[in-house]
Amino acid sequence: MHKRSSPSPKTGRPSAPYRVVHDPDGPATLSTTVVHALADCMGVDPTDGRITLYDIVDPDALDSLFRPQYDGTPRAGGRVSFVVDDYRVTIDGGREVVIEPPTNGPAASTGHRSTPTRTDRR
Fold this sequence. Notes:
Layout: E1 2-3, E2 18-21, H1 30-42, H2 59-65, E3 79-84, E4 87-92, E5 96-100, E6 117-119
Antiparallel strand pairs: 1-2, 2-5, 3-4, 3-6, 4-5
């Protein structure tokens, strides 16, 4: 996981979209990369259980979505977006993870809300 943006010095949270590049050949799954990126944005420890994807998207399905096809051919493109605690998460091509902070300042968490979308590009 390679971070591409920094948290705001005042809030410790990014004020602009937070970008991470997921390494599909690395040890972390895509869902783990997403949880760690969200934790960075929210200023929390990713292991304390405050961030869970299970209520929004099935992490195993998310990991499978961008894995190579059964014959080993890489998947071409694709995008999925969902919202976790007012942060919009967009995964593009299984590599770039972009997290947009809440538009009304720090997350005023109203619980997990989701509007998953997926676009295929073959």
